[in-house]
Amino acid sequence: MSWELLLWLLALFALLLLVVQLLRFLRADGDLTLLWAEWQGRRPGRTQGCRGVYLSQPVPR
After folding, report:
1. pLDDT tens, residue by residue, 7-33
2. With contact defined as beta carbons under 8 Å apart, do 40 and 30 qualify?
3. Which of 23, 36, 50, 57 is the most buried (most CB within 10 A)?
4. Is residue 28 included in any domain, yes or no?
5. Alpha-carbon gap, residue 26 to 9, rounded angstroms
6. Out of the domains of life, which is the source (predicted)?
7. Is residue 39 part of a domain?
8. What's the whole-model pTM score?
């Protein structure tokens, strides 16, 4: 097996991996934070513990 063939196979594998990851990202039902937590092996619902973060706008008067 020549080195040139090995490099071509490695480049093809890297390109295939990028395409698969792009397709997974486009079909994912979640944001990047949840996807990152899932990829790291943590359960997305448990990453913040019992803390809740609420964002709200002041009520206009």
Report:
1. 999 999 999 999 998 888 788 777 777
2. no
3. 36
4. yes
5. 26
6. Eukaryota
7. yes
8. 0.48
Enumerate residues 6+ apart whose C-beta is below 8 A from 30.
Answer: 38, 44
Helix (H) / strand (E) element for 60: namely none
Q: Could you tell me if residue 34 is inside a domain?
A: yes
Tell me how far apart the alpha carbons of residues 26 and 28 are, in angstroms, rounded to a whole number.
6
Unique residue bearing structure tokens 């490695």: 10
Neighbours of 38 (CB within 10 A): 14
Q: Which residue has the tokens 């990152």?
A: 36
* Number of independent structural domains in the chain: 1
Alpha-carbon span 32 to 13, nearest angstrom: 24
Domain membership of residue 29 as a residue range: 3-46
Distance CA 35, CA 44 (A): 8
The tokens describing 17, both together, are 């991996």
